[in-house]
Amino acid sequence: MARISETPEDTSAEDMNAQAHAARLKDEVLRADPETIRLLLTEARSHNGWTQKPVSEDTLRELYNLMKWGPTSMNQQPARYVFVASAQEKQRLGKCVYGSNADKILSAPVTAIITYDLDFWKTLSRVFPHEPKAVDYFRGNDEAIFDDAFRNGTLQGAYFMFAARALGLDCGPISGFKKSEVDAEFLHGTAQHTNFLCCLGYADTEKLFRRLPRLEFDEVARII
Ligand SMILES: Cc1cc2nc3c(=O)[nH]c(=O)nc-3n(C[C@H](O)[C@H](O)[C@H](O)COP(=O)(O)O)c2cc1C
């Protein structure tokens, strides 16, 4: 089956409203201010150590309600999150990671298990309602399900980290974990798979190493 078009065919009053809203944003906000750019990118770091300052459930909900606005194909939103916050669950997660990543998880106030859900397509009739055929496109199409879940779930992981930084939180992403163990321990009975882990909290900057170099534009990009 051909992939579904993502653009509705007719324009409703709701669409006109959305267009006016987007135009107003472009009039009112031209670009992020320099402090925000420092906070999100040029001076933001991946952290290894954590202060004892807690992260509340309200903050986690605020974080989700910010990152959820990041775009995904067909508005799929395949990422799911397990916030590991109790001492007991941190111990369990700490056993599923390599080397010093265990200490990071034990000392961080919260570590998010960021997963992608292979059942994401079952909610498309709610989140992509103008195209009822979208569900049929994915039903039984394991390759498309995995590609879309992993692609968009990974993007949502990035939105998650930038939303956290926007709220003044620090992130410590971790890919040094045993996927089969994290999946078995925390995602048993679901169609979810672990993408990566992300410690969250307020950084102990004394645990930071030097900033590593980034590749230059001309090494990684070409304009054709
Ligand atoms: C998805 C992802 C997984 C990562 N996994 C680990 C990890 O397992 N252990 C670790 O110490 N750092 C890990 N890092 C941190 C990277 O090494 C770090 O982001 C990179 O060196 C850039 O550092 P900076 O953000 O401080 O400039 C990971 C980063 C990302 C985005």
> How many domains, in number, for the residues?
1
- Uncertain runs are none
- Shape, per Cα inertia axes: globular
Total strands: the figure is 4
- Alpha-beta content class: alpha+beta
CATH superfamily assignment?
Answer: NADH Oxidase
Order of helices and strands: HHHEHHEHHHEHEH
Which percent range fits the helix content?
40-55%
Q: How would you describe this protein?
A:
The chain has helices spanning 13-28, 34-42, 57-67, 87-94, 101-107, 124-127, 134-138, 142-166, 179-186, 217-220, and strands spanning 79-84, 110-117, 170-174, 192-201. The protein has a single domain, classed as NADH Oxidase (3-Layer(aba) Sandwich). It has ten helices and four strands; from the N terminus they run αααβααβαααβαβα. It has 224 residues and is α+β, with helices and mostly antiparallel strands. It has a four-stranded antiparallel β-sheet, sandwiched between helices. The two termini are 32 Å apart. Helices cover 43% and strands 13% of the residues. It binds flavin mononucleotide. Flavin mononucleotide is lined by residues 45-46, 101, 173-176, 196, 211-212. Residues 45-46, 101, 173-176, 196, 211-212 line the site of flavin mononucleotide (FMN).
